């Protein structure tokens, strides 16, 4: 006899509470009351007892209701549900996740059965309607019923009072609301990742309902800013356990079979805040008679291919990420820190495996002979920063750099100057763009925004890396081996034509060939050096360029003026470089850890994938910097700043602030009273009423009215134009609604100083007329001459004096609207025609 007592429990044999829970928990599918009645042989009044017992168990949290009046184990899944294909496990089985999971705990594991013949293979990211079967260990087997498509749309936002979700993406349209049951345990002020619920409402038929899928932390947390970018762009942050295990099991390389470079004084040169050092450099004068004043240089790169074998768990997660992502307060690495900051980091005075290339260059930086690639073991002589190296070169050496100056640093600069001569002869695209650096403290709070100084030490490392990258591409071509090229094609002709027209307004000519060459762009960049608008014009030339990408097909690199180029120097943070390392290992017989069979044939697909992940990372980094900048400027709302108009659109002006490099929008409806037309060809906003013009490159003073760290949006208000794009000082005009401009009505407006002054004058005259009994000024007759057709045709370029008598003064427009019975037009509303 069961000892349980429940309301209305009848006499006789009944299942215990434990038996009921066990039956429900071990069932392959959710069970309804009729199944429980049959399973335990319940009759009559016992059914009412069962109903009460199930409610008690639900209240105690031991079972829960499923769909269609069923009961299931806590956290169990319905028999038929929508799941997302997430990934493959180590055995290649597809894993899924419930699409509507809202609990804090991890969802149960779902193994998706292979598709039947004739059906398309499922891939991560797809959504399917599946029938689930629960296994005794709590996992599920899923059989696809129907493929629903790609992943459901999500929205990231902040929960505000009243169940409103405020999206972090400023491009998100419409309103989003959270019903009480869709909040889970999330609270007001939290960042949450939400799924948009299915809806049959028409467009514009009310707010969109969403449900909380993941909680990310509170809005007041300084580190939440980069989390927004990470989740908005679906950047993976967690490594699979297998990948972590492989990284933790890594050991030092054996010197056996490797070239010993431990006595070569290789050094690493990186930023002061760098934690991984994946490249080291060395140079010395070439003593060969056939190379007077030439150099022998070595670039050594961490031997990542030794640790990340093709097809391993580490390789799969590196491929998925494609590259590391860098934020002001954190790094999302491509490889676990055990490798990226450990065995694959060329720490000073520690033995490390490397893949090195030795190159010979002549006095003008041209290659001499073949390059020698080697798997080696090295020991970095020093970990130096760019600032330390530059200071030593400039005569301000320290205890660390002093002993290295003559034997190591001076030869590096000698080889650098030779490589720079080669660069200048090639005619590369040398854009001078200030790099904005957001400075954060240990708490993740923004303490400042600085322009990163570009030193010769930075250029030195850049030139050494370019040389090594070219050597890798040349070697793979010579060996007819697979190569993942870094491709940068010439700019689109239409973009070049548009840029050419814009440059004309600054008195600069861009050569009019089919597509401008690197030399043509170089001449333009030389002309703008030292000019106030130089940063803006450099930015325009950058926007004109095509976007670089990865491909096994070589099309050259336009920006660097190179016939062939590959990425070889950063396999810690770029998957493309790892592929180049593996191909070199195969082509040169440097080991058994090169490309796996058939991998070279997949380079097309891999190139597309890593090009996408690179753009994803760039977008996430830019968005995060915008948000950090807005967080810094939030405390300065109301302050005035100088800047330049860096973009002109139909909805307003984008102004780059000189002090911080922040970009903010001056909405068109906040510009002085007028209806503005956008002239895309000349990058101008032109006022139809007063003729006021805002141009790309205008130096302006603006007022900060809004800075939103959540969206990264910065809104500005125009105060004044300090100087036009061409450097001319504008006439002394107040930038206020109704102010005079430079259009055909300028003379009319200035007859009474301004339109408002003229209106004030008319009102004063009207009062005087009333006192004297005369007609008001607006009704006083004025002698007019009717101009002839010839006179009209002669006055086509003017709308002022030619349409009036020779002795008449044009009338100033009254600021007071006429009483027409219609609603007054908004200040920036387009006049009806």
Explain briefly what this protein structure is:
It is built from 19 helices and 34 strands.
Textual characterization of the structure:
By secondary structure, the chain is α+β, with helices and mostly antiparallel strands. The termini are far apart. Strands 4-5-6-8-7 form a five-stranded mixed β-barrel. A five-stranded mixed barrel has the order 9-10-11-13-12.
Please, what is the average pLDDT? 82
User: What is the percent of helical residues?
Assistant: 25-40%
Instruction: Report Rg.
Output: 35 Å
**Estimated share of beta-strand residues:** 15-25%
Strand count, sense and closure of the main sheet?
A: 5 strands, mixed, barrel
Extract low-pLDDT stretches.
1-11, 732-755, 778-833
Helix and strand composition category: alpha+beta
Any idea what the shape is?
A: flat
Oligomer: single chain
Using DSSP, what is the number of strands? 34
Going across the biggest sheet, name each strand in turn.
Answer: 4-5-6-8-7
Tell me the span between the first and last alpha carbons. 91 Å
**What's the tally of helices?**
19
Describe the protein's topology.
Blueprint: H1 17-26, E1 31-32, H2 33-40, H3 45-59, E2 63-65, E3 70-73, E4 80-88, E5 94-98, E6 110-112, E7 127-134, E8 140-149, E9 154-160, E10 164-167, E11 176-178, E12 190-196, E13 208-218, H4 224-232, H5 241-248, E14 259-260, E15 267-270, E16 279-285, E17 295-302, H6 304-307, H7 313-321, E18 325-327, E19 330-332, H8 337-343, E20 351-361, E21 372-379, E22 382-385, H9 386-393, H10 402-426, E23 435-440, E24 446-452, H11 456-478, E25 485-487, H12 493-504, H13 518-528, H14 534-544, E26 549-551, H15 575-587, H16 603-633, E27 640-649, E28 652-657, E29 663-667, E30 676-679, E31 684-687, E32 693-695, E33 699-708, E34 713-723, H17 746-751, H18 755-772, H19 789-794
Parallel strand pairs: 6-8, 11-13, 14-21, 15-22
Antiparallel strand pairs: 1-3, 2-3, 4-5, 4-7, 5-6, 7-8, 9-10, 9-12, 10-11, 12-13, 16-17, 17-20, 18-19, 20-21, 23-24, 25-26, 27-28, 27-33, 28-29, 30-31, 31-32, 33-34
């Amino acid at each position: 006899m069961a000892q349980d007592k429940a309301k209305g429990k009848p006499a006789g044999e009944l299942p215990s509470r434990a038996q009921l829970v066990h039956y429900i928990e071990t069932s392959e599918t959710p069970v309804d009351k009729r199944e429980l009645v049959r399973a335990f042989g319940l009759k009559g009044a016992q059914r009412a007892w069962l109903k009460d017992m199930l409610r008690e168990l639900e209240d105690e949290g031991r079972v829960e209701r499923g769909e269609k009046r069923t009961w299931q184990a806590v956290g169990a899944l319905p028999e038929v549900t929508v799941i997302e294909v997430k990934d493959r496990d180590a055995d290649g089985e597809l894993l899924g996740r419930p699409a509507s999971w809202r609990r804090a705990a991890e969802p149960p594991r779902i193994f998706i059965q292979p598709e039947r013949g004739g059906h398309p293979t499922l891939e991560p990211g797809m959504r399917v309607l599946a029938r689930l079967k629960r296994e005794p260990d709590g996992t599920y087997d899923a059989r696809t019923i129907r493929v629903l498509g790609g992943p459901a749309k999500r929205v990231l936002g902040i929960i505000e009072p009243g169940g409103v979700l405020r999206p972090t993406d400023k491009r998100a349209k419409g309103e989003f609301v959270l019903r009480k049951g869709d909040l889970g345990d999330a609270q007001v002020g939290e960042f949450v990742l939400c799924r948009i619920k299915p809806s049959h409402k028409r467009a514009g038929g009310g707010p969109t309902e969403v449900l909380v899928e993941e909680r990310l932390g509170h809005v007041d947390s300084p580190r939440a800013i980069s989390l927004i970018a990470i989740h908005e762009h679906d950047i993976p942050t967690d490594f699979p356990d297998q990948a972590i295990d492989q990284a933790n099991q890594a050991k030092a390389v054996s010197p056996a079979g490797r070239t010993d470079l431990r006595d070569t004084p290789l050094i690493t040169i990186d930023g002061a805040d760098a934690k991984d050092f994946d490249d080291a450099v060395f140079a010395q004068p070439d003593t060969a008679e056939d190379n007077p004043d030439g150099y022998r240089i070595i670039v050594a790169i961490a031997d990542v291919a030794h640790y990340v074998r093709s097809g391993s768990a580490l390789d799969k997660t590196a491929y998925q990420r494609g590259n590391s992502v860098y934020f002001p307060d954190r790094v999302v690495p491509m490889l676990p820190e055990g490798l990226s900051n450990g065995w694959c980091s060329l720490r000073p005075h520690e033995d490390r495996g490397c893949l090195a290339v030795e190159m010979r260059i002549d006095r003008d930086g041209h290659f001499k002979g073949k390059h020698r690639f080697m798997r080696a073991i090295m020991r970095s002589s020093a970990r130096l920063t760019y600032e330390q190296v530059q200071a030593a070169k400039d005569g301000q050496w320290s205890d660390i750099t002093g002993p290295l100056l003559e034997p190591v640093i001076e030869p590096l600069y000698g080889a650098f100057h030779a490589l720079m001569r080669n660069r200048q002869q090639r005619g590369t695209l040398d854009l001078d763009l200030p790099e904005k650096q957001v400075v954060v403290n240990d708490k993740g709070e923004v303490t400042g925004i600085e322009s990163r100084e570009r030193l010769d030490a930075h250029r030195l490392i850049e030139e050494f890396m370019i040389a090594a990258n070219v050597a890798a591409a040349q070697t793979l071509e010579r060996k007819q081996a697979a190569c993942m090229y870094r491709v940068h094609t010439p700019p689109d002709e239409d973009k070049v034509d548009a840029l050419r027209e814009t440059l004309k307004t600054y008195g600069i000519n861009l050569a009019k060939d089919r597509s401008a060459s690197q030399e043509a762009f170089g001449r333009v960049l030389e002309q703008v050096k030292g000019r106030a608008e130089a940063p803006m014009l450099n930015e325009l030339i950058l926007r004109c360029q095509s976007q670089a990408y990865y491909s096994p097909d070589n099309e050259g690199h336009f920006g660097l003026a190179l016939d062939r180029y590959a990425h070889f120097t950063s396999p810690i943070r770029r998957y493309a470089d790892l592929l180049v390392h593996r191909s070199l290992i195969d082509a040169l017989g440097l080991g058994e850890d090169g490309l796996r069979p058939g991998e070279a044939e997949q380079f097309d697909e891999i190139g597309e994938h890593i090009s996408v992940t690179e753009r994803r990372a760039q977008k996430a980094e830019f968005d995060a910097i915008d948000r950090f900048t807005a967080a810094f400027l939030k405390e300065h709302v109301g302050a005035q700043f100088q800047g330049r108009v860096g973009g002109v659109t139909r909805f307003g002006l984008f102004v780059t602030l000189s002090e911080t490099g922040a970009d903010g929008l001056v909405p068109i409806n906040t510009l002085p009273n007028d209806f503005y037309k956008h002239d895309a060809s000349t990058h101008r906003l032109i006022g139809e009423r007063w003729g006021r013009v805002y141009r790309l490159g205008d130096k302006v003073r603006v007022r900060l009215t809004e800075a939103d760290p959540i969206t990264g949006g910065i809104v500005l208000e125009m105060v004044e134009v300090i100087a036009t794009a061409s450097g001319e000082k504008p006439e002394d005009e107040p930038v206020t609604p109704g102010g005079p401009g430079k259009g055909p009505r300028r003379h009319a407006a200035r007859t009474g100083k301004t339109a408002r002054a003229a209106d004030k004058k008319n009102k004063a005259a009207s009062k005087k007329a009333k006192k004297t009994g005369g007609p008001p000024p607006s009704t006083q007759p004025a002698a007019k001459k009717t101009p002839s057709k010839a006179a009209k045709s002669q006055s086509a370029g003017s709308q002022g004096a030619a349409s009036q008598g020779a002795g008449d003064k044009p009338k100033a427009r009254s600021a007071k609207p006429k009483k027409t019975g219609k609603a007054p037009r908004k200040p920036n509303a387009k006049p009806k025609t």
